[in-house]
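User: Study the shape:
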Amino acid sequence: MTYKIPSSLSTERLVLEKTTIDDWSALHQFYQDEESTRYTTGRPLTEGESWRIVAALIGHWEIHGYGPYTVKLKDSGTIIGLVGLWYPGDWPEPEIMWSLIPGFSGQGYASEAALGVRALAATYLPELHLISLIFEQNQASRKLALAVGATLERKFVFRDKEALIYRHPSALNTGQHDTGQNAD
């Protein structure tokens, strides 16, 4: 399949690559952690459940031509999480999503990756109007959305919980058409 965006990109400290099933074992560290999954799956997942989630991430690329990237540290290749474009069937609009494996938060990795993905989307998919859908209690993600320049647009009920839509600046509003990153 030909994808709508490059299957990998590099930032200063990170390499983002299209998620593959080889990433599952490392990503399971996120999906088995109670605190990490509080605002995503709502509970820790078994190995089988996290395998199916990773399969869905891979399938997202095949359905939409874009999707989440597995994020790796450039210097070591260590997988630290997922950041990328996400638009499942029940989402109101395409979003920039982020999820880091425990121990990698608070170091600027998520914002670095999210800004790289947003710039990439501005170049390859300028027609997308990107959001981040964040549950109201998820203070860390709300703070990150603001830090990368998204603005709180509205509150609504999503999956029986109060959720917020943070709107990312569009390519037209920011003039971003060059990723400033190395797309591979």
Remarks:
- Residues 174-184 have pLDDT under 50 and may be disordered.
- The first strand starts at residue 8 and ends at 10.
- Residues 14 and 116 are 10 Å apart (CA to CA).
